[in-house]
Amino acid sequence: MQITIGKILGLLIALGYVVAMIVQAGGITLTVFKGCMVLLLPLALIWFPDELGSLTGYVGRGGNINTETPPILVSIAGWFFLVGLPVLMYFLG
After folding, report:
1. Whole-prediction pTM value?
2. Residue 78: how many CB atoms within 10 A of its CB?
3. How far apart are CA 42 and CA 17, in angstroms?
């Protein structure tokens, strides 16, 4: 696995979210822990787009993925979940 600027930046943004959650909650709580678990999905999409994009086969409820997803689309989805969705929720909420 090659460490890139994007991977480091994604990790720093996620750590910023963790610090903000800890400050908001006044310490490490179950809610902060759950928030950290939620951050694992976008980080996985950013850090491992090749591996996650190459997954094919049965996905449940009769679904089947028969083509690989381009890694750039997997990475873009990770960035959307990490940065785009919180910004969108801030302005819409």
Report:
1. 0.83
2. 22
3. 12
